[in-house]
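Good morning C.,

I know you're traveling, so I'll keep this short. The sequence:
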Amino acid sequence: MRMLEVRNISKHYGHGRTAVRALDDVSFSLEPGQLLAVLGPSGSGKTTLLSIIAGLLHPTEGEIVLGGRPIHLRSPREAAAFRRRYVGLVFQEHHLLPYLTARENLLLVPHLSGRITGRDRTRAKSLLAEFGLEERAGHRPAMLSGGERQRVAVARALMNEPEIMLVDEPTANLDTQHGNQVLELLRAQIHARAMTCVMVTHDTRMAEQADASLRLIDGRTAPTGA
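The tokens, ready to paste straight into the viewer:
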């Protein structure tokens, strides 16, 4: 596993005096096994930052470096291949396919990469067990609780054994108990598998459980108490 470095990232929309600065000179680095919480109000640039790290957006300035190699200069096809191999994405809305079971939602990851192997089936079974979902593997999302659906989403993001986890408001739709449960499971996976993780959250209680935190205000880093 490799260090993730975000170096002087800026993202501007438009030109000249009317340009909107979604991000302005944001930098940080993460060692394998670290979880960074990115805090900030709506519109502060949090999701833009995740999108740039994932290769969904190109930065206007700066670079994203993984293990000493830049990863932000890829074509859309190369970026998509990089995400499939190295990135796990967890969204605020779980985005599980409603007509697939929990097990099938996990197996969708290798299916999109070409084919499902016996190792993939074993991995899906193991992840569901680790997340306390073994008894729910054959259930579709509508039959699962909110916390269970989010746990399935996190397990799905781990199917490709990613080096980077990018998590957008994972507990926003959960009560405190279930939110803590999801975050504890996520932290355990990050530390056990030596991944780097960037988690966007508005919840300071969740951020307190991270290894480090960064606050964004109008696209710029600010003291965490701001």
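Safe travels,
E.
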